[in-house]
Amino acid sequence: MSDINIKITDREGIVHDVVAPTDMSMNLMEIIRSYELAEEGTIGVCGGMAMCASCQVYVINDPGLEPMGDEEDAMLGEAFHVKENSRLGCQLHMAMAMEGLEVEIAPYP
Questions:
Q1: Are the CB atoms for 16 and 33 separated by under 8 Å?
Q2: What is the pLDDT of residues 50-101, one digit of tens each?
Q3: Were both Cys, which of 24, 45, 84, 98 would link to 52 (CB 3.0–4.6 Å)?
């Protein structure tokens, strides 16, 4: 089993230390949902297709994320509450290089 440790600040400002598996093909949106860190129906509304930005997060510490793809960039171009460090959780697939990742869940919507 290959797990990484990440920190997720929820929409109430509470920081959660989370253990995330890298061997289950999960993305950050799914991790947030599995730990119930956002209200039901306010994250992953589109099912992780980069079409709604409900899983937007602000990256506080980037240990080595993959570059943003065109679909993610386009969706963030239309989203609310976007900052320079915004990413879509559904596009951040858990990998060993993400050990130490720190994010804050963006407001909805």
A1: no
A2: 999 999 999 999 999 999 999 999 999 999 999 999 999 999 999 999 999 9
A3: 45
